[in-house]
């Protein structure tokens, strides 16, 4: 298979059980570059478990996850990050006491280019500040905040942009957004949705996990519905309506997955 | 024709000011808070008070300044360690006991094996005590408060047993020069230890990746882990740093008094913590200040010094210290209203 026809992410026949509970059963999923995929389902449908498997936090019992044809194997979160998978968690992606630069660069710091100092962990703050400004521009809040402001002093929308900026500034391939607008007001939500559009235009694949049907219908190209650990729908947005998606989620409506 | 998104983006980029500079209208750095200045204002007030009331009783002499600095050095060094520990969201109650243990082991090493082994004993005491604290916290998953409450007793007991409560004199003059009364050029060694200790602490805290990870670990450990930080390594690291600063403090005490005794450091814990907390370091993790810790330690030491010059009894000193701690902490650590 040539490179151009390979999906960015391929999940094949994935199964994960916790004790006797089948959290995920025979999940197949593909995500292509520049695509926004909505991952929806009721609480307990297996969305988080699936994302955690893809991010390497859980090791699946069966099945395979490949990114650009490279297998995740049992390499854990480190391997997943190497392959370019980034998860923006609801509330876990930021360190409130840190400033913008720190939040964008924690654990991936740019170190002094002089080797002895670099090995010591000496930070090249100037380079990181410049990089942070570029990332802020990329996520559309360049010029509105200082990169040295503490994240706890920012608005909810700005924080979410920083969290997303951290993910795309590093991976530039695929981002998982877990309820990115759950805590945001109307205007800030608007900003995040615009940002999703901008990232898609840059060829970044986005998997949006959300309970907000309106949002999913608005920004997604394709929707994947999980129900009780199984994929019950996987179809393009065209022709889909909110009530239909809700039907898949609750089990009232069935489709060929 | 423009889309709505472009118009919005343009509006955003125009929002700051009709100027080419991106910094216009953007606050440049962390938000200013008056309470961050508590320690400096407190220091200025207390200094002014003593200068007026006992300026003629020797408070303003160079000799007194030297004396304050030699007293503050061990406290401030421990305070730098405590900034790491508190910023990482932990606490170390065992530092006072490590002071005694390290002083005694250094003195025993000097007596039986000579200079280098003596110094090595002291440093090793700090490393081992810190590793023990850190590994117990991480391994047993017990809060540092409880672990170090236990090891505080344990280390204190070890110090007392090691010499059956006997003093150990130090006659090695190279040692007492180095850690005590010696000078480098016009500077007393106490000043040198203080300045070097401060610079190293400040650099590790602000300029090395480790410092950032300490902040992240203390701010939100789950987030730090999600960002890939090995928070357990950070937590063990800060406990080792803390114990090592306490060991160094013990070695400096031993150098100053030409000997070691198990009561060394026994009253330092609260002084150190008070100085650090007045200096603006959060008790709940995530933010700390080395300069604040230095100023807080100086403030605490200066208060004792001034009260002694005023002729206050030890009991009166304790009362005044208590009042100042309560006031300063009320200002610097006040939580936002719910």
Percent helix of chain B = over 70%
The SSE order of chain B reads HHHHHHEHEEHHHHEHHH
Q: How far apart are the termini of chain B?
A: 48 Å
Question: How is the largest sheet of chain B built, in terms of strand order?
Answer: 1-4
Mean pLDDT of chain A: 86
Strand content of chain B: under 5%
Structure annotation, total helices of chain B: 14
Poorly predicted segments of chain B: 1-25
- Please give the number of β-strands of chain A: 10
The overall average pLDDT of chain B, rounded, is 89
Provide an overview of this structure.
The complex is a heterodimer of chains A (257) and B (338). The longest helix of chain A has 16 residues, at 186-201. With 257 residues, chain A is of the alpha/beta class. In chain A, helix 6 runs parallel beside helix 7 (186-201). The model of chain A has no long low-confidence stretch (mean pLDDT 86). Chain A contains 9 helices and 10 strands. Chain A has helices at 47-54, 76-82, 100-105, 115-120, 125-138, 156-170, 186-201, 213-219, 242-250, and strands at residues 9-18, 21-31, 36-41, 62-67, 70-71, 85-88, 174-178, 205-209, 222-227, 230-236. Chain A has a 6-stranded mixed β-sheet with strand order 6-7-8-3-9-10, with helices on both faces. A 4-stranded antiparallel β-sheet of chain A has the order 2-1-4-5, covered by helices on one side. Chain B has 338 residues and is an all-alpha fold. Chain B is 70% helix and 2% strand. Chain B has helices spanning 4-14, 38-54, 62-87, 95-112, 115-140, 144-162, 173-181, 189-206, 209-219, 221-226, 231-257, 268-278, 290-309, 314-332, and strands spanning 168-169, 183-184, 187-188, 259-260. In chain B, strands 1-4 form a two-stranded antiparallel sheet. The radius of gyration of chain B is 23 Å and the shape is globular. The model of chain B is unreliable at 1-25 (pLDDT under 50). Chains A and B meet through helix 2 and helix 7 of A and helix 1, helix 9 and helix 10 of B.
């Amino acid at each position: 298979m040539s490179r151009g026809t390979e999906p960015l992410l391929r999940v094949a026949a994935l199964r994960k059980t916790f004790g006797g509970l089948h959290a995920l059963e025979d999940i197949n999923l593909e995500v292509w570059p520049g695509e926004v995929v909505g991952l929806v389902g009721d609480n307990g449908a297996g969305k988080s478990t699936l994302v955690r498997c893809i991010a390497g936090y859980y090791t699946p019992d069966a099945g395979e996850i490949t990114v650009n044809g490279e297998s995740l194997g049992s390499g854990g979160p480190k391997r997943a990050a190497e392959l370019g998978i980034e998860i923006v968690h609801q509330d876990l992606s930021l360190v409130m006491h840190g400033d913008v630069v720190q939040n964008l660069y924690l654990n991936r710091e740019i170190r002094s280019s002089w080797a002895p100092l670099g090995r010591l962990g000496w930070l090249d703050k100037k380079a990181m500040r410049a990089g942070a400004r570029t990332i802020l521009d990329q996520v559309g809040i360049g010029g509105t905040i200082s990169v040295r402001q503490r994240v706890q002093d920012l608005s909810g929308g700005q924080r979410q942009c920083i969290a997303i900026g951290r993910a795309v500034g590093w991976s530039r391939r695929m981002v998982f957004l877990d309820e990115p607008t759950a805590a945001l007001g109307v205007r800030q939500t608007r900003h995040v949705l615009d940002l999703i559009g901008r990232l898609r235009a840059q060829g970044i694949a986005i998997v949006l996990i959300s309970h907000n049907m309106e949002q999913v219908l608005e920004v997604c190209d394709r929707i994947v519905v999980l129900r009780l650990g199984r994929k019950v729908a996987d179809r393009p947005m065209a022709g889909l309506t909110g009530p239909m998606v809700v039907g898949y989620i609750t089990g009232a409506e069935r489709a060929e997955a | 024709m423009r889309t709505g998104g472009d118009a919005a983006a343009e509006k955003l980029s125009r929002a700051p000011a009709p100027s080419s500079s991106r910094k216009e209208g953007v606050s440049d750095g962390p938000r200013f808070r008056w309470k961050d200045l508590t320690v400096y204002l407190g220091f200025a007030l207390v200094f002014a008070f003593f200068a007026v009331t006992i300026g003629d009783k020797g408070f303003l002499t160079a000799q007194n300044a030297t004396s304050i600095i030699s007293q503050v050095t061990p406290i401030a060094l421990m305070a730098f360690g405590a900034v790491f520990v508190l910023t990482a969201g932990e606490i170390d109650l065992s530092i006072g006991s490590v002071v005694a243990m390290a002083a005694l082991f250094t003195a025993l090493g000097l007596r039986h094996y000579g200079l280098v082994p003596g110094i090595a004993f002291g440093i090793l005491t700090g490393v081992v005590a810190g590793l023990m604290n850190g590994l117990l916290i991480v391994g047993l998953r017990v809060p540092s408060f409880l672990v170090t409450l236990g090891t505080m007793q344990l280390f204190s007991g070890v110090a007392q047993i090691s010499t059956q409560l006997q003093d150990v004199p130090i006659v090695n003059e190279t040692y007492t020069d180095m850690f005590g009364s010696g000078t480098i050029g016009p500077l007393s060694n106490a000043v040198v230890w203080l300045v070097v200790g401060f610079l190293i602490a400040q650099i590790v805290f602000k300029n090395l990746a480790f410092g950032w990870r300490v902040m992240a670990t203390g701010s939100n450990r789950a987030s730090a882990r999600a960002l890939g930080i090995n928070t357990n390594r950070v937590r063990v690291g800060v406990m080792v740093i803390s114990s090592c600063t306490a060991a160094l403090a013990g070695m400096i005490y031993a150098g100053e008094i030409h000997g070691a005794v198990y009561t060394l450091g026994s009253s330092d814990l609260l002084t150190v913590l008070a100085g650090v907390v007045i200096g603006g370091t959060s008790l709940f993790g995530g933010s700390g200040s080395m300069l604040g810790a230095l100023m807080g330690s100086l403030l605490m030491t200066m208060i004792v010094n001034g009260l002694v010059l005023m002729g206050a009894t030890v009991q009166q000193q304790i009362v005044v210290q208590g009042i100042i701690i309560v006031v300063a902490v009320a200002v610097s650590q006040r939580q936002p209203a719910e």
